[in-house]
Specification:
three-stranded mixed sheet, 19% strand
Length: 147
């Protein structure tokens, strides 16, 4: 299965000059745990990621005024990204190695979506359910044949 089959195209983004407070408000408004920071101007190239944990650990815990610091000062870089044509296995391994739960997805350099640990678990759950149904169908078929 390819990343493009499971990505979420509705990505919440901001620019590098967005304040921590504005980023937090975007996360709250859209019910997400991260904001992808894009380079100014086209194409929509990810240059950083800010998570709710980054806000808590890098801003709030340090007593920094969230309205007075721009995300460029604490965003995660370099961005660990996936390409929309990659196999899920490769992306899962990259997430594991880099200890990230969310990855922006690009088509060349342009942002086309995001893939999260939850997206991957959902996709894998469907696959596992399909495999389990093979066994169930085999048992039912055998019962019908042996009556």
């Amino acid at each position: 299965m390819l990343v493009r089959d499971v990505l979420n195209a509705d990505v919440i983004c901001c620019g590098p000059d967005t304040t921590a407070a504005e980023a937090a408000n975007l996360m709250r408004e859209h019910h997400v745990g991260d904001v992808v920071v894009l380079a100014i101007g086209p194409p929509r190239t990810p240059i950083g990621v800010v998570t709710d944990r980054d806000l808590a650990v890098e801003v709030m815990a340090k007593g920094i005024d969230p309205g007075g610091i721009q995300v460029r000062r604490f965003m995660r870089t370099p961005v660990v990204m996936a390409h929309d044509s990659e196999e899920l296995e490769a992306v899962i391994e990259r997430m594991r190695v880099n200890a990230v739960r969310r990855m922006p997805v690009v088509d060349h350099e342009k942002l086309v979506g995001i893939v999260t640990m939850t997206d991957l678990l959902s996709a894998l759950h469907v696959g596992i359910s399909n495999v389990l149904s093979i066994s169930d169908k085999a048992v039912r078929a055998e019962r019908r044949l042996r009556r």
